[in-house]
Structure formats: structure tokens, C-alpha cells
Write a structure and sequence with these properties.
Layout lengths: L19 H16 L10 E4 L9 H10 L4 E2 L6 E7 L2 E6 L5 E4 L3 E9 L8 E7 L10 E4 L2 H17 L12 E4 L3 H7 L7 E6 L4 H4 L7 E5 L2 E2 L3 H8 L8 E8 L2 E8 L33 E5 L2 H7 L5 E6 L4 H4 L7 E5 L2 E2 L14 E8 L2 E8 L3 E2 L1
Antiparallel strand pairs: 1-6, 2-8, 3-4, 3-21, 4-5, 6-7, 7-8, 9-10, 10-11, 11-12, 11-13, 13-14, 15-16, 16-17, 17-18, 17-19, 19-20
């Protein structure tokens, strides 16, 4: 079910002489992919491929496979993979060039494999991670790979580690197409006189939708007898039901004609399931006093008088400095962030902070520019 063949030619970075111009073009292309409507890619060199990941039996095996493909991975800035850290909170790729690529497992909703068929340099394949918290126009975390087989292996590794964290990706229900709200031109081309349905912008190569005959530009009017009234109605009321079906009858409009397609996926009981052996090690309880506080990669200071006044009785400690290459930087903590809570307990001051820390996992409630956000850091990591 899952081919994981690895090519013998490694991705090459600066030694292969990828020019600044080429790097800029590639970065632009990847950014364009994240920002633009997929419909803009109907005639583009970008091809998305369908793939169902497999689960590895243990975290150790997943990390071992990642180490095996290390020479075949690159960042979008042409950096070679230097090291990797993975724990219950996410996976962090550190490169020889560019910023770390961070994928938080509790926000990870999907992984997709893309191929830039026009790119003639090394590593024309890439894996994009889609996050539930991504804002419109935000670039998805991406890693470039040398071949489709390596991209598939990387997808299986990240999928396995996400499952080990307790946040498995839902593999069922994706039949291999993406969609958006139809424009007036879409409706006219399909021969429709009023707003209805969703328009297909991508059909993944090799996926059930493509094999069943679905094409970009098709407007889906109903799914298994349920009318598609709008983009939001489909997304909210119809799309969630895909996880409990393996056969889909689509009524659609194409070139002024109505057509019906039957799309079949894997039987639901044949989709991969995470093995019970796939889990990260357990963390020690907070405040056990047996170990020194973990090195989290930041320096704290106490609140100033004005900060205390603004907090109106709440307490905390301010991040004064974030150490380059540390865990805090990887999790995008910033100087000026106020740590209000550590592992569910209020932070009284810098002096009272260390007793709240766990030897392994630590969860922080931060205040940044008036908004609260949570960040998790674990020193119980698998790495190389």
C-alpha cells in the first residue's frame, strides 16, 4: 500500500550551486501555492499527489527512518537538514539555512505531497503540512524532498509521530480533491444560472476522485443525494460525514451538462490504524525536586510596575531573551511574552518559576500584545 523507495541521489544544497535566483523563484512559487486560490494552478506545473500514509510501530522506528532520509531533505531556503526534535507537542526540523520548520501536532490536520514539474534543480517534491490555526495567506510548513518515495516516507513518519502524541490525523474521508466557492464565471461555464454547489480546483493525481472522473472546474451539486447549497454549508454539514462513507455519488455540472460520478475509496475498515505501541515516553510530574529545571532556551525577568498594573492583580514573568536554536525559539516564543501560567499554575515571579517546571513536558499560558496563547515544550524528545 505504501511505497517508500528512496533514491540514491541526495538533495544538494549550496555545493550543487543552486543560484540565488533559482532559490528566489522556488520560494516565490511555494509562497504563491500557499497564498493563491488553487484554481490558479489549473495550468500550472504544480501537481498534487494522493497518498495514504502508513503507521510505523514505534516512535524509535519512525525517527530511524527519518534519519535514513535525512540527506534527501531540504528546506525551502535550500538548507540541508541538520537535526530534528520530536515530542508530544510537535516536530521541529533545523536546517543549515533558513528558520526551523515547526509542526505542532495538536494543530496538524493534513499532509499533502506536491510536485513542481517545472523545477529542474534538486528536490522538486515537497510535503506541505496544513494547520488548523493557519490564517488566510499564511504559508504552510513545507519540506522539500528528492523523490515521491521520500515524500511518502516523510508523510508516514510525521503521521506516525502525530499519532504517538495523541493527535492522529484523520485519514478517512479524503477522496482527493479540494474545492472553493464558485465564481460567476464558474457558474456560467457550467451552465448554471444561480449560486449553487462547490467548484473543484484540484483533483489529486492517483486519488479516488481523479480515478472516478472528477476534474478541475466541475461544480458539485449534490453528494449522496444531499444538495450542496453553498461552500459553507458543504464544509459544515456535508464534508464531516465523509469519514463514515466509502462510496460517494456526486451529481455535478460540467460544460453546461449534468453528470453523475461514482467515487469509491478504501473500505473504512482497511484504513491504517495507529498501533498501541506507537507512543512517546511519559514525562515526570512537575515539581518533583529530583532534577534540575530543564533548559528551555529563554531568560526571564520580573514584571515591571507598569506591567503589574496592566495585569490588574495577575502575576507572571517576562521573557527577556530567547536563546538561538533552543526549544523556546522553535516554538516561536518571543522576548516580551509574559508567562502567566506554567503547567496550570500561576507563575508568581521569576524566583517561583522553576518549581513549577516538569522534567519532561511543560505547558505555558502566555500573554502577547494583549492576547493569550498556549505553548507546549517538552524535553522528553526523540532527536538526532
Amino acid at each position: 500500500m505504501t511505497g517508500t523507495g528512496i533514491a540514491s541521489d541526495a538533495c544538494s544544497g549550496e555545493k550543487e550551486g543552486v543560484s540565488v535566483k533559482k532559490r528566489g523563484l522556488l520560494a516565490w512559487a511555494l509562497l504563491f501555492l500557499s497564498l493563491c486560490s488553487c484554481a490558479a494552478f489549473a495550468q500550472s506545473p504544480f501537481v498534487r499527489h494522493y497518498y495514504i500514509p502508513e503507521y510505523y510501530p514505534t516512535v524509535e522506528e519512525a525517527m530511524g527512518r527519518l534519519k535514513n532520509i535525512q540527506p534527501l531533505l531540504m528546506s525551502i531556503d535550500d538548507g540541508m537538514l541538520k537535526s530534528v526534535e520530536a515530542d508530544r507537542f510537535g516536530i521541529r526540523f533545523f536546517w543549515t539555512a533558513g528558520q526551523a520548520t515547526v509542526i505542532p501536532f495538536d494543530k496538524l490536520t493534513d499532509l499533502r505531497i506536491w510536485h513542481n514539474t517545472a523545477f529542474k534543480g534538486q528536490c522538486p517534491w515537497f510535503v506541505a503540512a496544513y494547520l488548523s490555526t493557519a490564517s488566510e495567506g499564511e504559508t504552510s510548513p513545507q519540506m522539500r524532498t528528492s523523490t515521491k518515495g521520500v515524500a511518502e516516507t516523510l508523510c508516514s513518519i510525521i503521521t506516525s509521530l502525530a499519532a504517538a502524541s495523541g493527535h492522529p490525523i484523520e485519514l478517512r474521508g479524503y477522496i482527493g480533491f479540494s474545492y472553493e466557492e464558485p465564481t460567476k464565471k464558474n457558474l456560467k461555464d457550467a451552465g448554471l444560472k444561480k449560486q449553487a454547489g462547490i467548484v473543484v480546483d484540484f483533483a489529486d493525481l492517483g486519488g479516488p476522485a481523479e480515478k472516478g472522473g472528477l476534474k478541475p472546474g466541475d461544480i458539485i451539486l449534490s453528494v449522496n443525494g444531499r444538495p450542496v447549497e453553498s461552500f459553507e454549508q458543504f464544509k459544515k454539514d456535508i464534508r464531516p460525514g465523509f469519514v463514515s462513507a466509502d462510496t460517494f455519488i456526486l451529481e455535478l455540472a460540467r460544460n453546461g451538462k449534468k453528470e453523475t460520478l461514482r467515487i469509491k475509496t478504501l473500505p473504512l475498515d482497511e484504513f491504517p490504524v495507529p498501533p498501541k505501541t506507537l507512543t512517546f515516553g511519559q514525562a515526570s510530574p512537575a515539581g518533583n525536586g529530583k532534577n534540575q529545571p530543564p533548559k528551555l532556551g529563554f531568560v526571564l525577568r520580573n514584571l515591571s510596575m507598569s506591567e503589574k498594573s496592566a495585569l490588574k492583580g495577575r502575576t507572571g514573568a517576562v521573557i527577556l531573551e530567547v536563546k538561538p536554536g533552543g526549544l523556546a525559539e522553535a516554538m516561536k516564543m518571543q522576548p516580551g511574552d509574559i508567562i502567566l501560567f506554567c503547567n496550570g499554575k500561576a507563575v508568581p515571579s521569576v524566583e517561583g518559576f522553576s518549581v513549577l517546571l516538569s522534567e519532561g513536558e511543560n505547558n505555558f499560558l502566555l500573554l502577547r500584545n494583549g492576547k493569550e496563547l498556549t505553548v507546549g515544550i517538552s524535553t522528553v524528545t526523540e532527536s538526532f
